[in-house]
Amino acid sequence: MARDAGGAGPGWPHHGAAGDGVEPRDAGARPAVQPGRRVPRPLSGTCAVRAHPPRAHRAGGCGPGGTVRDGAGAHRAGERAHAPDADPPAEGDWRQPAPRGTRGADRGRPGARRRRDDGVPRLDGGAVAARPLHQEKQMPRIKTETLTMGYQEHGTGDNVVLAVHGNLGCANWLDLALPLLPDQLRVVTAEWRGCGDSEKPQPTTDFSNYAMSVHARDHLALLDALGIAKCHLYCHSTGGIIASYMLDAAPDRFGKVLMLDPVSPLGLQLAPGQVDVLTAMKGDTDVCFAGLASAAPTLFRPETLVAGQSPQFAATASAGQRELFRLLVEKTRLLSDGVWFGTPQNLAREWESGALAARMPAMKHEHLILYGKMDYWIPRDHMDVMVQKLPNARLELFPSVGHSMNLEQPSLFARVFTDYFGG
Fold first, then answer.
1. Can you give the residue ranges of every domain in the chain?
2. 59-111 pLDDT, tens per residue?
3. What pLDDT is stored for residue 347 in this prediction?
4. Alpha carbon distance 210, 193 (integer Å)
5. Cα 105 to chain center, whole Å?
6. What is the Cα–Cα distance from 275 to 27, expressed in whole angstroms?
7. Rounded distance, CA 46 to CA 271, Å?
8. What does the DSSP 8-state code read for residue 101?
9. Using alpha carbons only, what angle is made at residue 394 by residues 63 and 416, rounded to the nearest 5 degrees?
10. pTM (two decimals)
C-alpha cells in the first residue's frame, strides 16, 4: 500500500477535499474564505491549513505503479533540516533577519495601516516607493491557428518540454528555475490566451471561449506553429487540467508529464464567495498581493498569512524571489476577465461534468506529480485520485513547500525537472 511518509500530524489538518473521482458532483462545497483564518485562496475552495513547523525531509515508501513517496527521498541534494518553529525554507541567500524597524518595507497588506513598499504601482494611480522590478526580455509572439501567443524558450535540442503555467499566471513563474536547467533541454514556456503577452479575446457571456479545452487547443496550435511534433509536458496548478486535455486530444504527441501541484481532471468546485475574492484581487493590488502570497507561503512569515494581517516576506526569502513575486503581482493587471472569472467558472463545470476525470484511465503517459504539503490551494485528495486512476503515475510529497516549488524552492525544482526529463 502506498503511504505518505510525511503524514499529517497533530494540529496540522488534512485538506478536506470532497470527492473520490467517481462521483464528484455529490460532494459538498468548502468555503473559499474562513474569517479569522488565512488570507483568501483565489483558485480553489480548499480549507485553510495552519502553517506547521518545518521538519527534515524523510524518504517514504515507494513501490511499482501508482505510488506515493516523500519527494526528498529521490532528491537528497535539496534536503535541509530546520529547527522547530523556524520560518519555512525559501530558496536563495540565507541572510540574517532584517534589523528592527525595517519590517514595514516587506509588508503587503489588505487593509493594514502601514504602507507596503513593494515597487508595485497601485491600480488607483497612487505611487508606491519605487524599486527596480525584475528585468524582462521582450517576449516573442507567434500567430497560431487559434490566436497570437506570447512564449519564451530556454535551451536547444530535440529534448523539448512545453511548460503550461497556472491560473492568474504568466511565463515568468519559471524565471528563477529556467537559468538552472541544462542548455541541452529545450523548454518552451507559453502564455495562455488572456495572459501576459498573448492575445486576449473578448470573453463570451458564459466564458466558453476560455474553457480548459480551448486553452489546450491553443497550446497544441502553438506546437504546430513552432514545428514541434512531439514533446514532454510540464504544468503547474490549473495548467494541470489543461495538460490533461492535451493528452486526451493528442496522446501520441507527448512523452513524460511533470505536474506541480496540479488542478486534476476532476476540476474544482466554485466555492461561495470565490468570485468576490477575485473581484477584490483584480481591483486592489494589495489584496492581490495577499491572495498570491498564499500560493507561495514559505516566502512569508506564517503569522502574517492570516486574515487582517499583511503578508510579510520571511528573512529567508531572497532578493530575487521578492522581486519576482512583485512582478507576478504586477502582471495580474494584464489578465483578461476570461482568466480572472472564466477560469473558476470553467473549473466548476469540469467538476460538475466529470467527463474528463472519467477518461483518466486512457491517459497512459508517465506522470510524476509533485505536491507541497503546505499547499493551501489544491486538495491533497485530488492527487490521490490521480495516482489511483492514471495507469502510470507517481506522487512525491514535499513537507516544507507550498503551492509553488518553482518560486519557493527553484533549485530543488530545477533538480527534479532535470532528473525527470533528462539533460
1. 141-269+338-421
2. 333 333 455 555 544 443 333 332 333 333 333 332 333 333 333 323 333 33
3. 98
4. 8
5. 26
6. 20
7. 9
8. T
9. 110
10. 0.74
